[in-house]
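tokens incoming
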């Protein structure tokens, strides 16, 4: 950074604490302090970027600008906010930074001297886990899975049974997109299952080119759509790999540059999906406040969730077997509640939500392959979930999430009122 740019940045961060100290608006919802601290953390040690470091510096500036825009409404009267906005504009002009472009990437730390890398031809930045110092905090990992009729376990361990017929986004962040297509299991049935899966790995620095993986019923490839099995021609291409575990039935994708493992299976005619991903990558989105629905993070919309309680009693099962229509006569086998529970216990001895999902699917489809889908989904949880105490879930969650509606607006309203009164009292004391 030139002398002018360095003095601008230094001046900006010398006056910000002054404004924060004298302005009562600090107690308002204005989050400019959070934006400032994130920018300082991203650029610490890089106040004078060389030519080769300018792209990273511009990325940090764009992230800073995005953060300020997201809090513009609540910071309208905050002097520190306006100082930050002007400082960002000055620095972007001085370094010819485009306003369009990436705004974030996983925090990849430099390995201490002497630490070996997995491969000599793989750049350090292309191995997410090895980029953490031995004595620093390890990343937090989350899990999401989709299987059966379909049943969804979100990154926050919410468990739901959903309709979600047609195409739905499962994951959507800065590094990859996953979309599933669910189709009716039988003509005229409300039961659906995943018949198509598309995964897009976005191009990432010197590690990988953009790669697309597609699977459909009776077609589970062991390669990307272009025929390759790794990340392409870039120097760190081997940080993205596909491995075939069982031909036509089970593949695993390792995306080491983002610390992510994906498991795709075909069980019977339909697909299952499971992923292990660092929280940092999960939350790497351009505009989280205005982000659209994606199932692994926000769960299924309330109008797409199914109440399975009515399927858990023998009386309800008898009522369904007496129904006339195209669904049950076309089913491979008609299960009662007793025979369904007995069948599911063969593979799932613990009566948790995976067991209950198995019973539900046998009652609605009559297809024993759905029992295997629940079994393999739980096997994937055992392999991928970082918290072994949370493998079994016992209570279904229909909580209103951020993607559907706020769980309760009254506490938030009371909190906002309290903050407003506190702010007014501080202004009043200043005036007196």
């Amino acid at each position: 950074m030139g002398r002018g740019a360095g003095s601008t940045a230094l001046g900006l961060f010398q006056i910000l604490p002054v404004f924060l100290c004298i302005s009562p608006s600090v107690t308002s919802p204005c989050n400019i302090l959070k934006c400032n601290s994130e920018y300082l953390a991203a650029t610490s040690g890089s106040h004078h970027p060389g030519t080769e470091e300018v792209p990273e510096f511009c990325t940090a500036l764009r992230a800073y600008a995005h953060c300020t825009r997201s809090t513009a409404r609540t910071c309208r009267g905050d002097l520190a906010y306006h100082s930050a906005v002007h400082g960002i504009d000055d620095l972007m002009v001085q370094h010819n930074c485009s306003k369009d472009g990436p705004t974030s990437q996983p925090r990849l730390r430099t390995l201490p001297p002497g630490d070996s890398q997995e491969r000599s031809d793989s750049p350090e930045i292309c191995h997410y886990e090895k980029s953490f110092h031995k004595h620093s905090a390890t990343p937090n990992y989350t899990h999401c899975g989709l299987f059966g009729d379909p049943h969804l376990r979100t990154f926050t361990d919410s468990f739901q049974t959903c309709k979600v017929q047609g195409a739905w986004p499962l994951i959507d962040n800065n590094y990859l997109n996953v979309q599933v297509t669910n189709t009716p299991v039988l003509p005229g049935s409300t039961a659906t299952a995943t018949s198509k899966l598309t995964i897009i790995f976005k191009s990432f620095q010197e590690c990988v080119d953009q790669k697309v993986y597609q699977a459909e019923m009776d077609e589970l490839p062991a390669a990307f759509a272009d025929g390759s099995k790794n990340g392409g021609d870039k120097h760190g291409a081997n940080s993205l790999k596909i491995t075939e575990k069982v031909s036509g039935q089970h593949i695993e994708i390792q995306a080491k540059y983002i610390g992510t493992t994906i498991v795709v299976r075909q069980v019977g005619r339909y697909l299952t999906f499971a992923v292990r991903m660092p929280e940092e990558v999960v939350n790497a989105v351009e505009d989280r406040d205005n982000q659209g629905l994606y199932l692994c993070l926000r769960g299924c919309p309330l109008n797409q969730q199914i109440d399975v309680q009515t399927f858990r009693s023998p009386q309800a099962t008898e009522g369904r077997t007496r129904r006339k229509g195209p669904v049950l006569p076309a089913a491979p086998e008609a299960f009662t509640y007793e025979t369904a529970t007995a069948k599911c216990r063969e593979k799932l001895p613990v009566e948790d939500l995976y067991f209950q999902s198995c019973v539900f699917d046998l009652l609605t489809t009559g297809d024993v392959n759905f029992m295997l889908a629940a079994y393999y989904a739980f096997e994937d949880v055992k392999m991928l979930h970082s918290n072994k105490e949370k493998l079994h879930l016992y209570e279904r969650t229909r909580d209103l999430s951020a993607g559907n509606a706020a769980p309760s607006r009254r506490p938030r309203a009371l909190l906002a009122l309290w903050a407003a009164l506190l702010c007014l009292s501080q202004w009043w004391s200043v005036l007196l």
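note: The chain has two domains: 3-94, 141-390.
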